[in-house]
Amino acid sequence: MVKHIVLWTLHDNAEGNTKQQNALLAKNRLEALKEYITDIIEIEVGITHIGQGSSVDMALYSTFENEAALKRYQAHPEHQKVLPFITSTRHVIDDEVSPV
User: Fold this and answer.
1) What is the pLDDT of residue 29?
2) Pairwise CA distance, residues 38 & 4, whole Å
3) Which residue of 4, 31, 37, 95 has the smallest Cβ count within 10 Å?
4) Is pLDDT at 100 greater than 70 in this prediction?
5) Strands 2-10, 40-47: pairing kind
6) Bridge-based pairing state of the strands 17-18 and 58-64
7) At a CB cut-off of 8 Å and minimum separation 6, what does 44 contact?
């Protein structure tokens, strides 16, 4: 199994929306991808509402069966439609977890 974790610091404005508007749009659209992309085992997006100096604006936690499934998700056209709302600084961790 692969855990795919992404942290974003969003731009103040993008696509004609504020940072908070884009965070909500991205959260809703990313979480809805489970309906379209069968490779997603689990997907959850958190948005920072109480910012601190070291806070990021948004975090994604998702799981996939393997690296190939993660790559199919990343290339999927429905996933690609979400990207314009997430213009930002991005940090990613893809952790391969062995079955217990």
Assistant:
1) 93
2) 15
3) 95
4) no
5) unpaired
6) unpaired
7) 31, 60, 61, 62
